[in-house]
Request: fold
Amino acid sequence: MLAWIGSVLILSAVVLGLNWSSGDFLLHWTRYTAHLAFPYLLLAFCASSLHRLVGSDWTASMLRNRRYIGLSFATAHGIHLIALTMFLLADETWRPDTYFFVAAFGFVVTAALAITSNNTMVRRVGAANWRTLHRWGINTLMLYFTVAFSATLLANQEPLSGIYVLLIAVALILKYRARSRVVVLAS
Reply:
């Protein structure tokens, strides 16, 4: 819950700090909401790996609250969808293309994860199916963010995108190390 409140407060500060009369407002709003959503996705993705590898009170809390971290991502990403929609509708030259439909699928995945992030849905679809959906969904979203930030890094040499790509690589290494550790312990 605190993460969601933090998302809203940070987003409000960003939106209030922007120049609403500027033609670039919608572009900035779109970018900032993507930057706001990503850390929540990264934390949700890394929670179990960090807890397996570090096992501290902080990682245990992160693991316990992973659902709320994920819902914070979904909230911020939903706001990003609103900003992106407004930005695209304001651009008279924009037409849907393949990229649009691929990106739209990412928002559908986010919605599916958010809608099923409750105990009732876990019981309704079954724990194994729920885990499969959420594992597949979060990996798909991490792939989306990797492609998006890599493209931005290559096209604009934007340093923050480079940091995000590096963080994703570290998260993948952590996940691999945590899984390898579990396999070794199980042997």
Observations:
- The chain has one domain: 2-186.
